[in-house]
Amino acid sequence: MTRYLMTRLFYFFLALLVLSVVTFALNWLFPGDPLTNMSGIRVGQVGYETMLASRQFDSTVVQQYLNYLEHIVRLDWGLSLSTGTEVWQDAATYMVVSAELVLLSFLLAVLIGMPLGMLAANYFRHNIDKVILTSAMTGYSIPVFWLAQLLILLFAVQIEWLPITGQINPLYAIDSITGSVIIDVLLSDSQYKLAALQDATLHLILPVLTLSSLPSMLLLRITRNQTIEVLQKPYVKAARARGLSQQRLLFKHALPNVLQDVLPQLTFIFGLMMANLVIVEHIFNWPGAGAWLLKAIIERDYPVIQMVLFTLMALILAINLLVEVYRGWRFPMTREERYGGY
Amino acid sequence: MSKRSILVTAFTSFFLMSCSEQTDVPEPLQNGLIYCSEGNPESFNPQRVTSGTTVDATASQLYDRLIDYDAAQQTFVSALATDWQALDKGQRYRFNLRKGVTFHSTDYFQPSRTFNADDVVFSFRRWLDIDAPYHAVGGGFYPFFAATGLDQLISDVEKVDAYTVDIVLTHPDSSFLANLATDFAIILSKEYAEQLSEKDQQRFIDTLPIGTGPFKFVSFKKDYHIRYQRHEGYWRQGPDIERLVFSITPNANKRMLKLVTGECDVIPYPLVSELKSLNREEIEVRSEVSPNVSFWAFNTERPPFDDPQVRQALSYAINRQAIIDTIYYGNAELAESILPPTSWASTDAELKYQYNPDKARQMLRAAGIQPGFKMDIWAIPVQRVYNPNARRMAELMQSDLAEVGVDVRIISYEWNTFRRRLSRSEHDSVLIGWYADNADPDNFFRPLLSCAAVASGSNRANWCHTGFDQILYQAISTTESAERKQLYQSAQQLLMQQQPLLPIAHSMRYQAQREYVKGVELPPYGGISFRLAGKEQPAQ
Asked: Is the CB of B18 less than 8 angstroms away from the CB of A202?
């Protein structure tokens, strides 16, 4: 296991290193001055000359890269070109804002996808299965931006239940401390906490629903297919022959093996959610990292683009690492599958 | 009940509770108003900008001026100055100031004294005197004052006593008071500036603003919202609402949606035709005749646009009536001159540049422009009162011009980039416009087409004509209306000959709001004002 862990960690850091080389190269590939792209200080601005020296721009490219790497490790991503504030300082809240949305959506996706998947598998080729599968296919085929518009039309315009933009009605004057609106409301000293909490929840519903649609449908299909496969294995048949109840069979015996194959898909789903996050945050004016990235791209705010790209990709890699390590620990044979025995 | 089913029940009931009809509206929502503005302000000091978005977010909300203009009565009324008189044959104006006017008290500044003459002197010197300590803060550029020539007109601002101020002019100017009543001539706090200087934080004067206006600044989150709080103890009648939020929503469709869902109480630049087709009775669309003009300016510094004949020929090629019908849905008037017909100086000129492609073609050939000639039209990327959709307008013109053998490329950058490159005169021609700041006809001519405005950047045609400047100068040196009318008429005739720009439309100004919103004023000159804003009944 130790050796497995070390290998995974090694690959993780290798990937990060390659990623950093790419973002470093972006400074030259973006139009404009490389140092400006890197540090957010414009040519001719105060401090440009000192920055030139401190970033070792008089030295070799390798030296510059090492210097860049050092800055990244210290989380020093320079200044935003559009606001002039430190990128990392802004980033923290944006990231938490997105994290709240992603976590809730992921939770919802698991809560919808896995039980329905198992239900469908349990009624394989029955009508229930067909209904679930058809609706999953439909849900899977609707693009996120389209689904968002449909939901807005239905819930906000036609029946006027739900708001469509932002985390909370700005009149509640809840200060963004952590970024997570639920936590911010609880931390605030507003007299209207309960009303604010209710308002924040209403604001969460549409974005969470939209962001979780694709992952939940994916999970549903994967879970269904895996469960069907597992249920046909001899050991399940043997168990059934011994008179185990279907419920016990499903949850006690089939589920662990299903999870084993569903787990690696989570990384893929997470990556997919990151891509959709940008769209969902833009549509619902969600003040998170995805919308921030999109604005940075429109405004050519290179330090921000670099930082968000790197962090999102590093996050995906980290999730991948976690899933693999957990899977390796929980299901030892997957280690063997890959590395033949050690 | 198992643990799981308790959880499920709790979740469902919370969900249902959230969805259920709200019987009473929480207090913060009752006493607050959300205005969905169309963009980020560039600064919180209108002295430094001319963009309507910034003026809307600052001028009438955070600040006051010495005098205001009452559009209904067509007179100047007292504001921070209680009364004023012209001395020395109109070369010196004496203002008596109001006593007991308080500045905003916020967590970043607590005023120790009320408004007095020092604040007036400080506020005017900031843009007037290049040696003033705060002149260079934020770049030292004050486009409105440069464009109207106010910085040349005023020779000094003198404190006579604590509540009396004299403004000395280099020569009598009949547009002076009108310019003082604009959104740009606001009063800042000298005490606040001094405190910032001590802490060496001068830059905050325009980002954490302090004024005497009906609202005080609370916070600004770029791309999301600006928060204001009512200024308790405002010197005249203030708003009913306690909180004001500008929710920044650049997308016109989304603004409309948010108005429908009740997330906005008031929106600017609504999609009028679409909103009306929704036919919702809780939404009111208001319109106001507005002194504005949209035009197509030729960069007269660049050949071949330095040739009046080319400019005339291109003007004949444009079907302006089609533009009015398509872009403005008929909610605008075809512009014969840059001066709107509502101005007292306007005269009934006949429409000279009737759509006539044959004539345009002939004139172009005569001027030596061959078929296949290429030019750029820059179209502003944002909606403005005077132009709801410049890109679409440029497309219509593109096809009009293709008819006469001119090949048009449409250029539209992101707004900040657009303005920067425009001020560097990188354009062949641009579709832009002007929104009057005051009732004086001079406000349409000097900021747009004088030689001084070439330097300050608001003369998008880069057109400098000494004869024209001479007429404008004569017109502001007299207060005799008939004579001024005569002079502006000759100025307009000269413009028609020279055609540095083609006036296109005078548009109506629109605003949409929920029906319970009261007192949100849309003054004909300048930005929106929430000074008397209130809600008639609680929102549902």
From this structure: yes
Residue A153, chain B, CB below 8 Å: the answer is: no
Q: Would you tell me how many other CB atoms lie within 10 Å of the CB of residue A236? A: 17
Q: Whole-angstrom Cα distance, residue B103 to residue B213?
A: 8
CB interface of A with B, residues 238-257, below 8 Å? none
Cβ separation B224–A164 shorter than 8 A? no
CATH number of the domain where residue A136 is located: 1.10.3720.10
What would the DSSP string read from start to end of B144-190?
A: HHHHHTHHHHEEEEEEEETTEEEEEESS--TTHHHHHTSTTSB---H
CB contact under 8 A, B34 and A287: no
| Residue B130 one-letter amino acid | I
Decide if pLDDT at B366 tops 60: yes
Residues B224, A285: C-beta atoms closer than 8 Å: yes
Closest alpha carbon within chain A to B242: A171
| Amino acid sitting at position B203 | R
Q: Give the residue on A whose Cα is nearest the Cα of B23.
A: A195
Nearest CA in chain A to B540: A160
Q: What is the pTM of this model?
A: 0.81
pLDDT per residue as tens digits for the range A136-146 = 988 888 999 99
Q: Which of A80, A83, A165, A171 to mutate to test the interface with B (most CBs of B within 10 A)?
A: A171
Q: Which residues contact B415 (CB under 8 A, 6 or more apart)?
A: B39, B380, B381, B382
**Is the peptide bond preceding residue A215 cis, with omega within 30 degrees of 0?**
no
Non-local (6+) Cβ contacts of B83 within 8 A are: B95, B96
Contacts of A237 (CB under 8 A, 6+ apart): none
Chain A, nearest residue to B20 by Cα: A161
In this complex, is the C-beta atom of A89 within 8 Å of any C-beta atom belonging to chain B? Answer: no
Fold of B292-508: Dipeptide-binding Protein; domain 3 (3.10.105)
What gap in Å lies between CA B416 and CA A81, rounded to an integer? 13
ipTM computed for the complex:
0.83
Among A19, A33, A13, CA closest to A65: A19
**Tokens describing residue A103:** 């976590």
CB < 8 Å to B27, chain A:
191-192
Question: Which two tokens mark A34?
Answer: 């490389």
Is residue B5 within 8 angstroms of chain A, CB to CB?
Answer: no
Tens-place pLDDT, residues B302-360: 888 999 999 999 999 999 999 988 888 777 888 888 888 878 888 766 667 889 999 99
Q: How many CB atoms lie within 10 A of CB B286?
A: 14
For B34, phi then psi, to 5°, come to: -115, 125
Place of tokens 């004002």: B529
Question: Cβ of A46 under 8 Å from any chain B Cβ?
Answer: no
Which CATH number, 3.90.76.10, 3.40.190.10, 3.30.530.20, 1.20.58.100, labels domain B64-208?
3.90.76.10
Residue B474 C-beta-side C-alpha neighbours within 13 Å: 16
User: Within an 8 Å CB–CB cutoff, is residue B32 touching chain A?
Assistant: yes
Domain count within chain A: 2
- Interchain proximity B17–A192, CB inside 8 Å: no
Q: Is B225 on the interface with A (CB under 8 A)?
A: yes
Paired residues of B406 in beta bridges: B373
Q: Is residue A149 in some structural domain?
A: yes
